[in-house]
Q: What sequence folds into this?
């Protein structure tokens, strides 16, 4: 014989058949999901920043290497070195006549624009390196160019040095280029290049 269920029994059976989440469970799940998403986004941002930094560092190193190779070629074939307007100008500037082409090449660094340019003859100056951090040599920065004789003496730092004495006595030009692109590690290189057309001579050190 079937018996009718009481209202209380009906409510208990309905509650037992309900499948779902409570509001608290939903809030907890949502919070966990937000934390996981936040961590994932942070990891992606760090990864992309590292990629950009690596690319910028590689670009900076490539700029410096290409500039050094071009400078090496110009300096080795120089005859003669050009004379600057003042002794102080030698830290930022290098002018020379390359042989056997006879072309005049002018290298110039601007502490203001932080660019190193190369100009052939009366042509347009071409930017070879940008974002340089050498600073202003007249204000304690690192000179891009330093001029040495065959005894290893820095001619521009000598008492009584003149533009003429620097240009005529130089046998080695030291080039220092320091670069720091945005979001990249600083990169610098210093190389000494001998002027093949200007041998030391017979003067003893």
A:
């Amino acid at each position: 014989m079937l018996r009718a269920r009481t209202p209380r029994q009906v409510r208990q059976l309905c509650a037992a058949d309900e499948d779902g989440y409570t509001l608290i469970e939903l809030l907890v799940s949502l919070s966990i999901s937000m934390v996981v998403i936040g961590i994932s986004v942070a990891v992606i941002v760090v990864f992309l920043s590292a990629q950009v930094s690596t690319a910028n560092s590689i670009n900076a190193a490539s700029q410096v290497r290409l500039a050094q190779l071009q400078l090496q070629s110009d300096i080795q074939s120089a005859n003669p070195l050009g004379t600057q307007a003042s002794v102080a100008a030698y830290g930022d500037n290098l002018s020379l006549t390359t042989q056997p082409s006879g072309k005049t090449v002018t290298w110039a660094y601007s502490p203001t624009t932080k660019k190193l340019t190369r100009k052939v003859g009366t042509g347009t100056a071409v930017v070879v390196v940008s974002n340089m951090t050498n600073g202003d040599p007249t204000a304690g920065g690192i000179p891009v160019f330093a001029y040495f004789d065959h005894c290893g003496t820095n001619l521009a730092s000598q008492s009584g040095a003149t533009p003429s004495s620097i240009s005529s006595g130089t046998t080695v030009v030291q080039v220092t280029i320091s670069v720091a692109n945005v979001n990249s590690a600083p990169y610098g290189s210093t190389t000494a290049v001998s002027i093949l057309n200007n041998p030391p001579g017979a003067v003893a050190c």
In short: The longest strand covers residues 172-179. The chain has a mean pLDDT of 84. The longest helix spans residues 23-76.
